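1st attempt posting a full record on here, be nice pls
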Amino acid sequence: MPHIIPVFINHAGCPHRCAFCDQHAINRQTGFSLSKVREQIAEGLKWRPGEAEKEIAFYGGSFTGLPEETQETLLTMAQNLRREGKINKIRLSTRPDYIDKKVVRRLLAYEVDLVEIGAQSLDDQVLALARRGHDAQSVVGAACLLHAAGLKIGLQLMIGLPGQTWHSIVATTEKVIEIKPEVVRIYPLLILAGTEFAAAWEKGLLAAFELESAVEEAAYIADKVSGHGIKVIRTGLHDDAGLREQGVLAGPYHPAFGELVAARRCRKAIEAVLAERGGEGEAVFSVPARCFSQAAGHKKSNLAYFKQRYPQITVTFEKTDCESIRLKEFRRE
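the predicted structure (as tokens):
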């Protein structure tokens, strides 16, 4: 796994603040300056020395919305480090409506590898309610430009947004699969202090997203896109003391949200087999070592679920070197 050196440009380049966003709460940065960027890079280069692959990632704003001179200054810093052999890759995140042919030429000139697009949703109604300022077609167009130039892309998606229904989630997922990004991130909507959504929530005009719904929807999206070769690189925000203490007012915040989603995906895979079985017996599943604890579930929640849902079947796991969870045998009593 590469070592990511995150460089937060903290809302810089964004034309306005979206209804859900407060980058100050998310990354606890109070400003953006070249000196702070250099400090972040220098600190990041100290970690995992030697042969570990390192990647600079510009996060927290709309990189290609920065003044061109600032973009070139930052990209020159990254490109020089790459040519010196201190880093291996460069990525950045931006808005879909801030990508055009001129921008793509600049990214290619500075050897950018991957561009993460803040899509959030591919439902125009949902995007409008979130005050995104762009539509779904902007995401599709940006992705086409980047892919045509040979650049890899990522899509950042958000669940739990106002106006978002199950039908919207399914439709957005299908469009993501059509776009064919290399990677996807999935974030649940959290009510962050200082945002437009926070004001609506405090007035009782917006209900907070429930944890169970967030886990279920994130697991659905992750399963669907993974089945088409798209890698899910993150579900949920990083566990951060500052975010917990100062930023989150309501919503499905959980320090192990990613584990909950991974466990739910394992539960679905196992349950699909159990639902087809009749009678009593023991279902023995071969489970890859990398996801053995996830099969049992967070605090063994999956095992408890199977016991309640399928009391006539005993579920057991065997750790193997297989690629995915599969039924090894069903021992009938």
